[in-house]
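histidine kinase: structure tokens wanted.
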Amino acid sequence: MLAEVLIFVPSVARFREDYLLQRLERAQLASLALLADDMLSPELERELLDNADVLNVVLRRDEVRQLILSSPIPGHIDATYDLRDASGWVLIRDAMMRLLDSQQRIIRVIGEPVREGGELIEVTLDSAPLRTAMIDYGLRILALSAIISSLTAALLFFAVRAILVKPIKTVVASMQRYAEAPEDARRIITPTAGVRELREAEDALASMQTELTAALRQKDRLAQLGVAVSKISHDLRNILTSAQLFTDRLEDSDDPLVKRMAPKLVNSITRAVTLCETTLAFGRVEEPTPAMSRVNLAQFVSDVIDSERLAAGEHDLSFSEDIPATFTLRADPEQLYRVLSNLVRNARQAIVATGEPGEICLSAGEDDDAWWITVTDTGPGLPPRAQEHLFKPFQGGARKGGSGLGLVISQELIRGHGGVLDLRHTGPGGTQFMIRLPKDHASLAA
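Answer:
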């Protein structure tokens, strides 16, 4: 519509100017007859005015202004228009005013004679024929514009259909085919669009489909791995149960070392049996609810440190604890042991891998709302990839060959207590994890 206005308005203004200039030219030609013969009959003068389509003609020649042709004027002159130096905006304004004014008016038009036929020519004419001619011309312009617009719309329709609609339909069809079998990598869309925005959308869709297919494949492998782990855990549980029966007899040995180590061995095998049972439950998507009880944290930390000190062997690794002997909290003993064991084991493996001396410190405290436990080491810190996928299975392993399941399991167990397991800081100076366990039952229930 804006294009229609920009075409229509100047065109009508130009038509009005040409119309008036033609009347001036005809009037000048009519006046030549009088200049050639001073005596004209009234009939011939009237015919000349009718042919020029004007009422009066005034010509200025040789510094003399002379009424050349005249006829009775039916009314007073309403407006005067000088075409000699009129600007485009003035011509457009006058044309629109004449087009909108339906009253019959007498106007005076001033212009320059053609071929230097004088200094000025002035005519008086009726505006009604001018308005009628402008309306007729405007209608022709509108009809032509409508035809051009229709042709443009048709071309635009086919262009949009070929450039946009067809590629979009191709993308939609590709998405539907992919949805039928997202595991099939052959159904991932191949970007072919020529339009930049559509090409970017296809690239994004292809990237998303590729990641989704990889995730589905990984999930399928994890499901198969879960079945295998469940089978292994089932058989391992039976083996460990038999071993547990044999270790019970070690307590009757007279060897002081055996008597001291036998309870720890029995506890380790018991925890291994419990781990197998919980693994089987996890494979059935049945995570056991924590069996909450009062736990002496110092005793648990001592057992964890003794186990990890043996695992460290002769490596220069020291363990320390800052836990009061009477410090107790409410938690599931087996699950809390697994969490602390996972965190200390990760710290020990990180330090041993560097070949440098190190220290692992466990501390605990409490406030009005929660108990907290920190595990701090002087290891090399977690690599960027491990930090990015810290609590994601099979992605957050900090060492080569690690599965990253330890932190995932630990976080899930602490979450089952209503608590939070967070990485406080990591870097070349070491790493610290914190466990917060709520004291109120409402948080635990939530």
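Residues 442-446 have pLDDT under 50 and may be disordered. Residues 289-445 form a domain with the Heat Shock Protein 90 fold (CATH 3.30.565.10).

Cheers.
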